[in-house]
Automatic annotation (TrEMBL):
This is TRAP transporter small permease protein. The keyword Membrane applies. InterPro entries: DctQ, TRAP_DctQ. It comes from the Bacteria. Part of the tripartite ATP-independent periplasmic (TRAP) transport system. Its main location: membrane. One of its GO terms (molecular function) is transmembrane transporter activity. GO terms for cellular component: plasma membrane. The chain crosses the membrane at residues 15-33, 78-102, 114-131, 158-176.
Length: 212
């Protein structure tokens, strides 16, 4: 069980890194190709003896740049995937200081109950959104609409947006893990206790420093 969780954690982190790297590389290539052809045109004007060769290279780069209209759509799709993969990853690392800060405002005796209620609400939200988005994906699958600017690669819209129900399903599992840990007494709130403590101390200091 622990081995499977470790594999899942590593796969999640690798996917986040891959999407970030992919977005960066695609955007970088698009910007380079959209600016590089002008350099060769300028060299062709400055070097008459190499004018034809420089113009040929510039035309080739310009053609590639014009054909890379798909890069914007691909970057948007990867960013969408990054968001919904990041939802589950954020729950795992405890990146929800706002919710945990709210829980810590209650008395210690009630914090566990409030945390369980907060996680239960999050679980219900994940179920609702996963079900609703799955219906949306099913409709797109039935229609078979191609993804804009990505149709040249045979990519359909449902293939791009299927990460939405998957992301909420993964987030549900992560919140379920938190729920179980709170019941077992292994966790008091939703995580990030050190940052929450710092935030609480800052709030208390601000209140103490406010003149009456």
């Amino acid at each position: 069980m622990h081995a499977a969780v470790r594999v899942w954690n590593h796969a999640e982190e690798m996917l986040v890194a891959f999407l970030l790297a992919g977005m960066t590389l695609v955007t970088f290539a698009y910007v380079i190709f959209n600016n590089l052809y002008g350099v060769f045109y300028s060299l062709g004007d400055s070097l008459p003896f190499a004018n034809e060769a420089m113009l040929g290279i510039g035309d080739s780069i310009l053609y590639v740049a014009q054909e890379m209209t798909w890069s914007v759509a691909l970057t948007k799709a990867m960013f969408g995937w990054l968001i919904f993969v990041g939802l589950a990853w954020g729950v795992r690392i405890g990146a929800h200081i706002g919710v945990d800060l709210l829980v810590r405002q209650f008395k210690p005796a009630n914090q566990r109950r409030v945390a369980l209620l907060a996680v239960a609400i999050c679980l219900g939200y994940c179920v609702l959104m996963a079900y609703s988005s799955e219906q949306w994906v099913a409709t797109l699958y039935a229609v078979g609409t191609s993804a804009e600017d990505l149709d040249r690669f045979g990519i359909k819209q449902w293939q791009v947006v299927m990460i939405v129900p998957i992301g909420f399903a993964l987030m549900f599992v992560r919140f379920l893990q938190v729920f179980i840990r709170i019941i077992q007494g292994k966790q008091q709130g939703l995580g990030l206790h050190s940052e929450v403590d710092d935030a609480v101390k800052l709030a208390e200091n601000d209140q103490q420093g406010t003149p009456k």
